Amino acid sequence: xxxxxxxxxxxxxxxxxxxxxxxxxxxxxxxxxxxxxxxxxxxxxxxxxxxxxxxxxxxxxxxxxxxxxxxxxxxxxxxxxxxxxxxxxxxxxxxxxxxxxxxxxxxxxxxxxxxxxxxxxxxxxxxxxxxxxxxxxxxxxxxxxxxxxxxxxxxxxxxxxxx
Length: 163
What we know:
The chain is mainly beta. The protein has helices at residues 73-76, 150-153, 156-161; strands at 20-26, 29-34, 38-43, 57-63, 66-72, 89-95, 98-104, 106-112, 118-119, 133-138, 144-148. The chain has one domain (16-161): CATH 2.40.50.180. The two termini are 13 Å apart.
């Protein structure tokens, strides 16, 4: 098993990375993940298909000898898959001790989002929101970003299916 970088051990993060988020586009929406879970961003490589996986699991990539499952964030969010463009890329995140690739439409920016900029997510008619949504952040540009927690988005059952 590969040793995790020091930043991920014990959920400790450096002061420079506290409240930092990578914001990216999926469809018309902007979404953000805590930068501490982001390992790297790569151009869209060839993806090897896997049988009998959920529709949003596009397959896997081989990145320097590491086999990494790849997820279409459009399909994960219930959106229609569209052809990839030159801006489509893969954000490699670390969830537990597993690397997962997130196919996103484009990168927007990395920014600091203070807790007071984050509003709770709206509740649905069932009274529950999505467990993986941290909240809605007000960005300095006047826009918003839906902040997601990759640890809750990709639970143990999904990670077991890709092992």
